[in-house]
UniProtKB/TrEMBL annotation:
This is Uncharacterized protein. It comes from the Bacteria.
Amino acid sequence: MDRTPSLLVDTSTLLWLRLDSFAPARHTPPWEAAALECLVLFDRVLLDGPTIHANRERLQWTTDVGPGFQILDLDPQAVSDLYLRGAELFQQMPDVRLRDVLPGGHTPPALAAEYPGTHFYPSTYWDDVVRGLDRREETRGVLRAFTSAFGSQPRVFGHGPLLLIRLFYYLALQESAGSALLLDRSKAYHDDSPEYGHASRILGVFTEQVRAAYLQRKEKWLGAAQPAVPTPVLAHYVKATAERRGWSLGRVIAWLREQPEVHAFRAGMAALTDATERGDARTIDEIMAELDEAAQQWSVRLGTPVHRRTIPVTVALPFVESQVRVPLPNLPRTPGRKLLVFINMLLSSD
């Protein structure tokens, strides 16, 4: 993760997330929690302009996002060049039997929506792919490039070729943007989602230790049972805020990205990453010690100030003169505190 990390998100992921929804589902699968975390924490989020504009009715939240979101407006020639670059990247792969790796079955609607100007039905076959892509100038070249690998009439469903072509399109766009890449889980060529540095692990520790202790106390005194599968804390906060404020998930994400607690968290993560890359064991240990102390204290009482400092103040009252100690404001100056101010915000809303 560099100082100003950026993340390219494919349009299928955004369509699957249904961020225009005002009634988010209670259950949050791991891929959804990881995607919500990335959309909040990455400084810059890049979106594929042609497919965003083509699906604007299902992505209304993208019409009012902050400067951290960048919709990459690509003309047809640029799209065609990316497809062809994707074909070049595909040809560099080791020889494999495509029939063994390509998914079969019906074409998901979210994948079909990434081909503006065409209409691929769920039961799409290769000949349907040929007709659809050959009609459009920006996809005609990539069709010819991939035909040599597929053969003129391979006996495969259209789902696999359509997925492969879009996968390598995004790999080419990622190469051009120099960013991390978040793919729809059906496109992913590995199981790991991109992460914002060590943020997932840090948030996970606080979720397991602090939130678990809080829920145990809550169950003991109020009788509220713990959830069997607790939702990761950031995803829980996004959905709870949407429900509490009557906002869409997309609006919550756009609002949360601009909060000072999130900016502080990013600054803390940047300092931690920088220390890790430099091998600065002392700085790393200072940050980890502060987080560890907070986790232990918050397990007893949520939000307990860490290393609360005070200053002496002389108070003059009639017939009384004494000196008292007044707490200093707990400003997030150290990297550890910059991380904690956001974590406290998330946990305090549980």
